[in-house]
Amino acid sequence: MPFRFNGGLKLNGHKSATADVPIRRAAIPPMLYVPLQQHIGRRLTPRVSTGQQVAAGELLASCDGYVGAPIHAPVAATVTGVVERAVAARGAPRQQCIALATSADAAWPGSIASEAETVAAVPAAQMLAAIESCGVLGLGGAGFPTHVKVREGLHRAVDTLIINGAECEPYITCDNRLLQERAAEIAHGAHMLARLVNAHRTIVALEEDMTAAAAAIRPWCEQLGLTLEMVPAIYPVGGEKQLTRVLLGREIPRGSLPIHIGVLVQNVATAAAVYRAVAHGGKLVSRVVTIAGDVASPGNFDTLIGTPVRAVLAQAGGRFEDDLQVWCGGSMMGTPLDDLDAPVTKTTNALLVLPRAPARVPLPCIRCGACVDVCPASLQPQALLDAAVALESEALRKLHLFDCIECGCCDYVCPSTIPLAATYHRAKVHLEEARVAQLASVAVRDRHQRRQARLAQGRDVLVEELITPPAAGDELRDALAAAVARARQRKPDDGAGTI
Amino acid sequence: MNGRPLDVRRIMLETLGALVPGLLVSVWCYGWGVICQCVLVAVVALVLEALVLRLRGRRGPWIPADASVLVLAVLLGLTLPAYTPWWITIIATAFAVLIAKHAFGGLGQNVFNPAMAGYALVLVCFPAIIKSLDGQFLALDRPWQALRLVLRGVEIDTTSGATVLDVLRTQRMMMLMRSEIDLSAFGFLSAARAQWVNAAFLIGGLFLVVRGHVKWQIPVGLLGTLALLAGAGYVYDSARYAGAMLHLFAGATMLGAFFIATDPVTSATTRRGRWLFGAGVGALIYVMRVRGGYPDGVAFAVLFMNALVPWLDNVTRPRTYGDSRS
Predict the structure, then answer these.
(1) Across the interface, which of B5, B8, B109 has its CB nearest the CB of A413?
(2) ipTM score of the complex?
(3) Where in A103-224 does DSSP place strands (E)?
């Protein structure tokens, strides 16, 4: 590989326990809880009512806005209501979930032929519609709706499509297994995406130690004209920014998306989901989840979205004891999950069961610079720490806090065992809240000032202003004028201030 | 970047281990007084550290878990002349622990290297005593003889045990040519014992570099600059300026390069910053040795560069991923 990124870590992958075990199907649980927000973007609006019978693949909720991906009933079930509960996603946020009581005769969605021979050329618009209506989103962890990402790619010249199979997080092997067992689907999905955005070339990127996966996908890459690249197994090479740098030698500028430099990155599981959606109209109602760590039978489980974590763990022979902690995600970026009734979402890639570590009291930072050497974003973690603890927003911005990808390399090497990434995350949340509060207060002030001005100028000016909004067309203006006139007739003495 | 992560305690303990060869050679070259100083500093420093931590409301064991105070103690003990009177040692230790370390916020927060700050204080306050004692070798058979000297004070003829740096300074002040000074006396175990001490610290220092506790840029920058300047001076006027080898193996060069300038808390953290920091210390050591009036320049050079660290870190901040400036 000609390029490399700064820092990073060579980690023990802990993957051997699960990488060679075939994917198993998790059983259908009696209750499914399908979260209404599994993606980045707007929360979905439910399209079913309590007591309604839904068939497998039936729409449960869809999005009113641009950024959102619909959700579907994984199997035939009865809607029992909407409940709020923690979900198995980063940070275990509480979400509204549609509760489904699965029917006794519910069956797993029909399997799709893995040996996808030739797929008839599907028009682009139809492909995009299928991706959107099947609820496909980024299965690598971020959960960005795929049709939105692709649509952005339609407006801009896409030079390179990267299919990301560089699964760098320790313990996680769901993409590895998928590559070994469903290489055809992934390759066809990649090919479809490439045609959709007119990519000049498509690179399937795997870590260099994923030899079995590479062997499985290589014939398909050759057949479909995809480039297979093996990247060094240095954590976090699978990060979008790091992978782009390693493969192309190009960096994604601050505040930009890969698409701005002509790059579209999609996870291998997403490519497989695209194939299923386009070729078979298969809704995204299940995903492969790695169950690893201290369980009797670790491995990868094809799991229905909405399955409670407890049910999946039980099938892997998990113990539910106090000395164990369940983590959502890998050992580097995973977050603790305390509520085992939390449902699996479209972005749950791994559930890790590890012994509870004794609480370590962090020592003071001795500025040893170990974090500086490993930071893949080339930040100054030790300087950021001081600023993050003191919440100095100016200093934090100067030190590029928002370029931190929270990969946890600094935590891993810190000799004082300081929880650096978590501290940066808190500082980010704080700055973001402050920014939103600032915007809101500015908006309130502006509104108040405009109102004061209106009051000062009198009622006629107010009416004038209302019936001539800056961008309003004639129709709207007429309608507004009529409405104002009606209101005036009804309440002749009401003050302008209440409008 | 590879391997098992370390913790602060382990780093400090391995640093102490790396000091052992230099410490042993120092005892062999300067006598039992070296041990007396280290023990005296360590005892006073531990007591003060424990008291200050209590006063600052820190709970925990009476002996601080991070062992950093022991590193401070050995470094200060090695820096002070072997037969420094006890009260001067206590003043230096108290200043190092109370002012240089804890008044700035304790471990990790101090701007100046505490050991060097303590040494610099007594060097400035009691220059005559320190200068007269620097590099003295007393062949005492028993440790307690040395202890008695430290406790009672000692009168020493200032020329008998002068270091090679002292001789060079005296020669410069007397406007003598270097060729007029008999340097042949500075052979093995006469007055140039410093070269063996330096060699021992070099070995310990290399161990720390291999273990990754010391970032190699600082010692390389320091020794490289010192050698370069000394070499240039020697080429310019070999009659007046000593060569690179002498400067590298005289005084506290190796101790400074590997153990003092590399103190993580008070040195630069960026890669380019470490280079500049090391080079700055090296250059200042040379300038103070050829122009200054003190036994050596290491302490003041390190302290001066300590003060520049925040600025160095700021101007050498590396390009962040995705940043357009190159």
Answers:
(1) B5
(2) 0.79
(3) 160-165, 201-207
Q: Judge residue A118's burial from the number of C-beta atoms within 10 Å of its C-beta, 0-12 exposed, 13-18 middle, 19 or more buried.
A: exposed
Please state the domain extents for chain A. 16-23+124-286
* % of chain A surpassing 70 pLDDT: 91
From the list B68, B313, B324, the residue facing A383 with the nearest CB is B313
Shortest Cα distance, chain A CAs vs residue B278, angstroms? 15
Q: Which residue does chain A place closest to B318, by CA atoms?
A: A378
User: Kind of pairing, strands A299-304 and A286-293?
Assistant: antiparallel
DSSP string of B23-73, one letter each residue: HHHHHHHH-THHHHHHHHHHHHHHHHHHHHHHHTT--S-SS-TT-HHHHHH
Helix (H, G, I), strand (E, B) or coil at A317: coil
Q: State pLDDT tens for residues A2-36.
A: 688 888 999 888 998 899 999 999 999 999 999 99
Which chain B residues contact residue A13 at CB under 8 A? none
Query: Under CATH, to which class is A16-23+124-286 assigned?
Result: alpha beta
Q: Distance between CA atoms of A275 and A138, rounded to whole angstroms?
A: 14
* Nearest neighbour of B269 by CB, restricted to A9, A241, A369: A369
Cα radius of gyration (chain B): 20
Question: Worst-scoring range by mean pLDDT, A442-446, B79-83, B171-175?
Answer: B171-175
Looking at residue A295, what DSSP letter applies? B
Do the bridges between strand A31-35 and strand A94-102 make them parallel or antiparallel, or are there none, so unpaired? antiparallel
CB within 8 Å of A229: residues ≥ 6 apart: A1, A203, A204, A205, A206, A247
Two tokens at B133?
């004692």
Q: Chain A contact for B57, CB < 8 A?
A: no
| Encoded tokens for B231 | 């070499």
Distance CA B299, CA B292 (A): 12
CB-based contacts of A205: which residues, under 8 Å, 6+ apart?
A162, A163, A164, A165, A166, A229, A230, A231, A243, A247
Quick count: other Cβ atoms within 10 Å of Cβ A211?
Answer: 11
Strands A94-102 and A77-86: antiparallel
